[in-house]
Specification:
Layout: H1 4-11, H2 16-21, H3 32-53, E1 81-87, E2 94-100, E3 110-117, E4 123-128, E5 141-147, H4 150-156, E6 166-170, E7 178-185, H5 196-209, H6 216-224, E8 233-235
Parallel strand pairs: 5-6
Antiparallel strand pairs: 1-7, 2-5, 2-8, 3-4, 3-7
Helix pairs in contact: 1-3
Length: 236
């Protein structure tokens, strides 16, 4: 009889179709390692399918400032969410952003970052503004460093793990086409109990975020018009 390890090894060569169409392999409980390997096989094939449907990025979308995307497929979109995105280019190791978490308001209940792989659409890390241990809490000033590893952040940037204002978000060493997503949630419908001026402020902020096009000029205009929490990206 095959050992659990050898059964799991046999699955390494199987495709998603092989696993799903197998009959004898799924009879009764299986060892944990074999079950985990089946999950990995399915996950890898799923990522390949997703990757094949994603459009290639334009060259000017690498190494830019945040831009509002035409499509947010793969991000499991929330109707109240506005996403702006930036992608690491091949000439740099990471990103640095100095700004502050917006002040708490009733119309903007969420602000935070997601580190993603554009190739697989996988979210590999996140930081939330309101959590003191992550970005410091509402109104907190911070400097965010985004890198594949902490070692690279220490070697190639001025990231200091002893500095309480420094926050680190990691893509992981194997992340393909690393991206950074900044996500805002806004309440904007009249069905909420927000006052008229709150609804107006919420909808104005949502509209201004759509003006971001990856250029410093657009970023500066959005900052000048009062959208909080948007910092300039420095690539290192």
């Amino acid at each position: 009889q095959d050992s659990p390890a050898s059964s799991a090894d046999d699955l390494m060569a199987m495709s998603l179709e092989d696993v799903l169409n197998s009959t004898d392999e799924f009879e009764g409980p299986v060892p944990q390692e074999e079950a985990l390997q089946r999950g990995r096989v399915i996950g890898e094939d799923f990522n390949e399918v997703i990757s094949s449907k994603i459009k290639a990025l334009h060259q000017n979308q690498y190494g830019s400032q945040f831009f509002y995307p035409n499509s947010v497929g793969g991000l499991f979109v929330n109707a109240n969410a506005t996403y702006v995105i930036a992608f690491l280019d091949t000439e740099h190791h990471g990103m640095k952003i100095t700004t502050k978490v917006p002040e708490k308001t009733r119309f903007r209940p969420f602000y935070g970052y997601m580190a993603i792989s554009y190739t697989t659409t996988e979210t590999v890390g996140s930081l939330v503004g309101e959590r003191e241990a992550e970005l410091g809490g509402w109104g907190a000033e911070y400097t965010l460093y985004v890198a594949k590893t902490e070692e690279e952040a220490k070697e190639f940037s001025d990231y200091d793990p002893l500095n309480k204002a420094h926050r680190l978000l990691l893509w992981g060493p194997d992340c393909d086409t690393p991206g950074l997503v900044l996500r805002y949630l806004h309440y904007f419908a009249e069905t909420t109990d927000l006052a008229e001026d709150e609804l107006e402020a919420s909808n104005k902020e949502r509209e201004l975020l759509t003006h971001l096009d990856g250029t410093r000029a657009a970023l500066g205009k959005v900052q000048q018009d009062g959208v909080p929490g948007i910092g300039e990206i420095e690539y290192w």
